[in-house]
Amino acid sequence: MNIKKFVLASAAALALVNCGTPQKTVTQPETFQLKTFQDSISYVMGINSGENLRDIPAGIFDFKAFEKGLKESFKDSVVYKLDEAASRKLFQTLNDTMQKIEKAKIEEQIAANKAEGAAFLEENAKKPGVVTTESGLQYEVLREGDGEKPGPGDRVKVNYEGKLIDGTVFDSSYKRGEPLVFGVSQVINGWTEGLQLMPTGSKYRFYIPQNLAYGERGAGKDIKPYATLIFDVELLEVLK
């Protein structure tokens, strides 16, 4: 958040303060309505300002002091004037603090994802029919085919559904109504290993630990860093 953004947010917040309709009585306030361009744009500016400011922790941000500075600035009657260097130093401290908070949140989420995935795989390995390979990949045979198995240089046609361990479906060729064709070695390691275990015509369920999936990168909006993944994979055809 730089000084310019903060000033714009401050001006917008003042517009929000001034755009409400006065109450007729203490117990029966008049419903606020957007009727004109002035009140509408002021309200939207207020919303945008609130979104910019709400992530600042309460221990750092004081709304009363903010409101006081906002009103004084708007009326050109600022009591405590800071030069640009002092203001920049304050905002730099704010930026540094927010970055530390965000980094701590990310590290906490990463640790939680790793622990959750490890616990899930540990329990899942005990279930009947679940096989764990040397790499840590777990798989379950849903239907065993009798065709050829693909090699690392082959291309395959598959149908699949991908889920998080909480059951959230993040991708599905079934929903798209179209199988996917790709090289066996062109996908995540868990798939590359698992596909080579499957005779054509099989349907397996892969339980893929984070280090054989997307690891620290994650993927898209649903697959967070270090997420353990579950895939139902149906091998339809091996293409040479």
UniProtKB/TrEMBL annotation:
GTP-binding keyword on record: no
Pfam families noted in UniProt: FKBP_C, FKBP_N
Source domain of life: Bacteria
InterPro entries in UniProt: PPIase_dom_sf, PPIase_FKBP_dom, PPIase_FKBP_N, PPIase_FKBP_N_sf
Record GO biological process: protein folding
Isomerase found in the keyword field: yes
Keywords attached to this entry: Isomerase, Rotamase, Signal
Catalytic reaction equation(s): [protein]-peptidylproline (omega=180) = [protein]-peptidylproline (omega=0)
Entry EC number(s): 5.2.1.8
Coiled-coil parts of chain: none
Domain PPIase FKBP-type, residue spans: 153-239
UniProt GO MF annotations: peptidyl-prolyl cis-trans isomerase activity
UniProt record similarity statement: Belongs to the FKBP-type PPIase family.
Protein name: Peptidyl-prolyl cis-trans isomerase
